[in-house]
Structure formats: C-alpha cells, structure tokens
Amino acid sequence: MSAPTNGEIPEIAGPRVEPQSGGAPKHLVVLVHGFGADGNDLIGLAGPWAQAMPDTAFVAPNGPDPCAMSPFGRQWFPLTDRGAEQRREGVREAAPILNQFIDQELDRYGLSETQLAMVGFSQGTMLSLHVGLRRTQPPAAIIGYSGMLTGTGYLADEVTVKPPVLLIHGSEDDVISVSALDHATKALEGVGISVRTHVSEGIGHGVAPDGMKLGAEFLRDAFAEVSNNA
C-alpha cells in the first residue's frame, strides 16, 4: 500500500465518462477494477450501460499502487499469500483511499450518497462490498462481479448501511471459485442485506454479456427506486 505523505490519504484518479444525455448527472457509478488491471478495464461498461442510464456519470479510479505481479497494472492491496486475513487487512487499508475518492466525486457533481452506485470486479468487489456497506448513508446499489466477501465474521458489528446487492459469478471461474458467491450471499443475508445472485454458465473470471445486461437493469431499477422515494 502506498505510504501516506504527511499522514494524508493518497489521491487517486482514473478514466471517466460523462452522462450520455449531455446534461448534469443525476447518478454516479464508481467502477472498481481488479488486481493487476486499472480503470480502463471497467470503464468500457459505461458504453452499453449508458443506454439504460443516459443521465449517469461513470468513473473508474486506478488503484493506488503498481501491481507487483502485473507491471502494467495496478492493485488496491497486495495479494502475496491470498489468505483471508491478508484480504481483510487489505480492504481495511484501501478503504480510506476509495472513500475519499467517492466523497470527492459526489462533491464534484453535487450528488448525494443515494445517487451513488458501486460496481466491483474481483479484488474490486472485495473493496466495493467493504466500503459500500460501511458508508454513513447507503448507496443506491452495489454490484460485485467475480469476487468475494471479506471479514464475514465482523459484518454484524461493522455494517452501517444495507443497500441492495447483486453478485454475479462465472461457473468456470478458476481464480475465485463460484462457491464464493454462496458464501457471500449467506453472510450478507445473515445481517439483513437484500442480495440477488446470478451465475453465468460456462464463463471464467470475467464479465459475460448476460452479467452486463443484468447489471444495467439492476442499477437502473435501484436508481429509479431511490428517485421514487425521494
């Protein structure tokens, strides 16, 4: 993890796509990439998703550190032994960096927490679930692709908000087993969080067309629900 300068939280940035409508955004989707990738890996979702959400801005921050195992990629935290404790400590250390970025982006667009959605892939799913469930106000939704939930034993004590969650996983994922989806679902439902799940048959560690379609529909419906309740 990058060492803070003078105690300050590192600043991050990444590619963005402004609303297709051309107007001020009514919603913000933060796309959190996986280990060894960067923001360019997920910002492509903005193209097809903007069709369903033309008033939404998309931003995909780059992780704070170069990835030791992928010289051209980034990481949110190291995965040297891939143990459960390392993952938990990793998301805890990276959380302030992503939280600061989200706060800055919401301020940039003049949006509220309920107009935010978080979408993660792999390591980005771990971080999105950790951060999104511990904000001061609930985001509209969290989507996790091909990831897992860390620190399940601490959820009951640490969760502060309970936004709707969609978890999507490939049936043939050989990086993070599809069994992680069931493990996360049980833990999240155990603390009262509404979870929808989908398994993309025959898909490995990636985002399939059916998962992209479901993600767009889930975000569109979540933003509509928030707007209706405003």
Residue share in β-strands: 15-25%
Over all CA atoms, what is the radius of gyration? 16 Å
Strand order of the largest sheet: 1-3-2-6-7-8-9
**Please, what is the average pLDDT?**
93
Low-confidence stretches: 1-6
CATH superfamily assignment?
Alpha/Beta hydrolase fold, catalytic domain
List the secondary-structure elements in sequence, H or E: EEHEEEHEHEHEHEH
> What is the name of the CATH architecture?
3-Layer(aba) Sandwich
Helix content: 25-40%
Main sheet, how many strands, which sense, barrel?
7 strands, mixed
Q: Structural class, please?
A: alpha/beta
Number of domains: 1
Oligomer classification = single chain
CATH topology: Rossmann fold
Number of helices: 6
**CATH top level assignment:** Alpha Beta
Number of strands: 9
Can you describe this structure?
The relative contact order is 0.14. The model is unreliable at 1-6 (pLDDT under 50). Strands 1-3-2-6-7-8-9 form a 7-stranded mixed β-sheet, sandwiched between helices. Strands 4-5 form a two-stranded antiparallel ribbon. Helix content is 35%, strand content 19%. The chain is α/β, with parallel strands linked by helices and 230 residues long. It has one domain: Rossmann fold. Helix 2 packs across helix 3 (123-132). The chain starts with 15 loop residues before the first strand and ends with a helix. The chain has 6 helices and 9 strands; from the N terminus they run E-E-H-E-E-E-H-E-H-E-H-E-H-E-H. The longest helix has 26 residues, at 84-109.
